[in-house]
């Protein structure tokens, strides 16, 4: 998106997979949406992630869903050196589900 001639990323989507040496696996999908004011300063962000992981013995599967909402509480001004002095989660929701397989 272009705001006041400045290019800003509104949405980021990623997909990651992993396999360890002991064959434990995971798959994670994330999406992050950023909000900007009319002069292209970031004013907030929301993100979601979904992860499925399985242990090496295929005994336990863990599914995790997270939702994060961030709001920028302070902006740089005279005498401040950092770009964003405070970025804190406004909301965080987490749902975990564990499934144990019967090794019969």
Count structural domains: 1
What count of helical segments does DSSP give?
0
**What series of H and E elements makes up the topology?**
EEEEEEE
Sequence stretches where pLDDT stays below 50 over 5 or more residues: 79-90
Shape: elongated
* Lateral arrangement of strands in the main beta sheet: 3-4-5-6-7
Rg (C-alpha, Å): 19 Å
Summarize the main sheet: 5 strands, antiparallel
Specify the structural class: mainly beta
Q: What is the percent of helical residues? A: under 10%
Strand content: over 45%
Number of strands: 7
Looking at the chains present, what oligomeric state does this protein adopt?
single chain
Mean pLDDT: 77
Distance between the termini: 54 Å
Summarize the structure in words:
This protein is mainly β and 104 residues long. It has one domain (2-75, 82-100). The protein is built from no helices and seven strands. The chain has strands spanning 2-3, 6-7, 11-19, 25-36, 42-54, 60-74, 86-100. The strands form two sheets. The chain has a five-stranded antiparallel β-sheet, with no helix packed on it. It is elongated and about 55 Å long.
């Amino acid at each position: 998106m272009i705001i006041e001639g400045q290019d800003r990323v509104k949405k980021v989507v990623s997909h990651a997979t992993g396999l360890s040496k002991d064959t434990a696996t995971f798959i994670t999908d994330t999406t992050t949406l950023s909000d900007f004011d009319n002069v292209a300063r970031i004013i907030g962000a929301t993100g979601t992630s979904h992860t499925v992981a399985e242990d090496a013995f295929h005994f336990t599967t863990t599914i995790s869903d997270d939702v994060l909402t961030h709001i920028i509480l302070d902006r740089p001004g005279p005498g401040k050196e950092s770009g964003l002095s405070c970025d804190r989660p406004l909301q965080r929701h987490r749902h975990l589900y564990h499934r144990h397989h019967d090794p019969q």
